[in-house]
Amino acid sequence: MKLKLDDQGHAVLQDGKPVYVHDDGKEVAFDAVSTVATITRLNTEAKTNRVAKEAAETALKAFEGIEDGAAARKALDIVSKLDQKKLVDAGEIDTVRNEISKAFQAQLDEVGTKAATFEKQLYEEKIGGAFSRSKYIGDKLAIPADLVQSRFGSAFKIEDGKTVAYDNHGNKIFSRARPGEIADFDEAIETLVEQYPHRDHILKGTGASGSGASNNGGNGGQGNKSISRSQFDALDPAGKHAHVSAGGEVTD
Length: 252
Hints:
It contains eight helices and eight strands; from the N terminus they run E-E-E-E-H-H-H-H-H-E-E-H-E-H-H-E. By secondary structure, the chain is of the alpha+beta class. It has two domains: about 1-60, no CATH class; about 135-250, no CATH class. The protein is flat, with a radius of gyration of 29 Å. The model is unreliable at about 205-225 (pLDDT under 50).
């Protein structure tokens, strides 16, 4: 990326931050303070991971020489039964263990069901709310937030309490303005829309409004108000809704 300069050769600033132009022409204000903080955090995380690795290696030294883990576990189980044989024989111990295991499993299943319910509620509130409150969707897209969520909602997940978006290749979407940091919701949805093949049909001022879309033959956008049946069928529900809402026609 290159630093953006004005006519006098001075760096262009946005909110006190220098503006850089990426190879694809996207202009982003570079947040140096945030970047330095991110580098510091990553260095701290790397040190923490290294210390944890060394501690794990030290703990594993106690098991050096044991190659058959299954045999070791079996031996420990036998010793456990021998110690308890003074109270009950081995068969009764297995019975008691199975009953205890069933009771704990029932509790775990109940907790798991509650956790799944809470997770679903959290997703609907955090992700669904983000779509309905999005300034980018309201200002830039020609379709309502629920249709946008229907098309792009699966790209968002909640990880460690934060909203994280993934692109079509399964990669996390990172911020251009804050290198090293996960993109916030509006920056992520903008990236997903830019990668969407039918974006001209859902963006305001393009295919959705009958002007500015590509391949309009220089007719001021009038050419994309009428599309063939095969072109219409190729659109997803969001694209079809946008075309119809914009007064577009479908020809056989």
